Amino acid sequence: MPGEDGAKGVLGVPVKVMSALVYVPFVGWMAAVVALALEKDRELRWHGVQSLLTYSVFLALTQAVAPMLRATIVLVPVAALVSGLSGVGFLGLWLWMAMETNQGKKVRLPILGAWADKIVK
């Protein structure tokens, strides 16, 4: 698990804390980019990749799918539902992942975790 031995990363922040920071809602992607650019710890890099993949799915839903649904008058209520549920759902997911990771547990999302394994070798 990340940071079990209290190891500190390149920035002087404990690896376990940095692993949790990459999941902080709406700003964690910045910590994930920093972790990928500077850190050598494989576990921290894995969390950074999974976090960025999660943000990508969120952005795809809110910035691509919902506007396409809004383009047709009939599907405006569906677009509002997609936007609202994805916002609340991802907020809850990110908070849960940050808390679990800070406690030293590795949270693997079903598809994104496998992609993160392939990216971080």
**Helix content bin:** 55-70%
Strand content: under 5%
The biggest sheet amounts to: none
Number of discrete domains? 1
Shape: elongated
Number of helices: 5
Report the structural category.
Answer: mainly alpha
- Low-confidence sequence ranges: none
In N-to-C order, the SSE pattern is HHHHH
Transmembrane segments: 20-38, 50-69, 75-96
Organism: Candidatus Amesbacteria bacterium RIFCSPLOWO2_01_FULL_48_25
Keywords: Membrane, Transmembrane, Transmembrane helix
Protein name: DUF4870 domain-containing protein
In short:
The chain has 121 residues and is mainly α.
Account of the protein in words:
- This protein has 121 residues and is an all-alpha fold.
- It has one domain (15-114).
- It is built from five helices and no strands.
- The longest helix has 29 residues, at 42-70.
- It starts with 14 loop residues before the first helix and ends with a helix.
- The mean pLDDT is 88.
Overview features:
0% strand, transmembrane helix, 69% helix, 121 residues, transmembrane, DUF4870 domain-containing protein, 5 helices, mainly alpha, membrane
Helices and strands in order:
Elements: H1 15-21, H2 28-38, H3 42-70, H4 76-102, H5 110-119
Helix pairs in contact: 1-3, 1-4, 2-3, 3-4, 3-5
